[in-house]
């Protein structure tokens, strides 16, 4: 069924507590944890508890949860004090865009200057 945990999904395992992560924010529908390979002083991943392979499928199936991910990303940025200097919310979608984990996630990046356009 859409949204159900997937046995072979790393981020479903983090949601279940079966893989450790440094969790910095949680809601009923989302979990946020520090990226294991940070690309900026603040680099937090915000994920829905439900499994969808990317942001587009999440938004199509559960738009309210997609909105929860954005709200959580904003709360994480404020909690990390990245909101005063600017931050970026990124959803890599598809392998060609650098997506490596196929459970929807927002990268929240901040704490340093961020170039535009990104690579
Ligand atoms: P993406 O390449 O957009 O799919 O992002 C996946 C992100 O997950 C990468 O930035 C990885 O560094 C990060 N990552 C992979 N494994 C873990 C883990 N066990 N805990 C935290 N972050 C992870
Ligand atoms: Zn998953």
Would you give an account of this structure?
The protein has a five-stranded antiparallel beta sheet, covered by helices on one side. The radius of gyration is 14 Å and the shape is globular. With 119 residues, it is α+β, with helices and mostly antiparallel strands. The chain has one domain: HIT-like (HIT family, subunit A), CATH 3.30.428.10. The chain contains three helices and five strands. It is 26% helix and 21% strand. It has helices spanning 10-16, 55-61, 63-79; strands at 23-26, 30-34, 42-48, 87-90, 106-110. The longest helix is centred in the middle third of the chain and has 17 residues, at 63-79. Adenosine monophosphate is lined by residues 10, 19, 21, 33, 35-37, 45, 92, 98-101.
Strand content: 15-25%
Overall pLDDT: 97
Oligomeric assembly: single chain
The CATH class assignment is Alpha Beta
Helical content band: 25-40%
Number of helices: 3
The bound ligands are: adenosine monophosphate, zinc ion
Give the uncertain stretches in residue-range form: none
Shape type: globular
Corresponding CATH architecture: 2-Layer Sandwich
Give Rg in angstroms: 14 Å
Topology order in helix (H) and strand (E) letters: HEEEHHEE
Largest sheet: 5 strands, antiparallel
Strand order of the largest sheet: 1-2-3-5-4
């Amino acid at each position: 069924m859409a949204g159900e945990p997937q046995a072979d999904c790393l981020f479903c395992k983090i949601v279940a507590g079966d893989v450790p992560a440094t969790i910095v924010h949680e809601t009923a529908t989302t979990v946020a944890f520090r990226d294991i390979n940070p690309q900026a002083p603040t680099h937090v991943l915000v994920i829905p508890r439900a499994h969808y392979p990317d942001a587009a499928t999440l938004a199509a199936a559960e738009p309210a949860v997609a909105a929860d991910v954005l709200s959580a990303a904003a709360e994480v940025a404020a909690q990390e004090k990245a909101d005063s200097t600017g931050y970026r919310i990124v959803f890599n979608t598809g392998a060609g865009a650098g997506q490596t984990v196929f459970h929807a996630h927002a990268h929240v990046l901040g704490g340093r200057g961020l170039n535009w356009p990104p690579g």
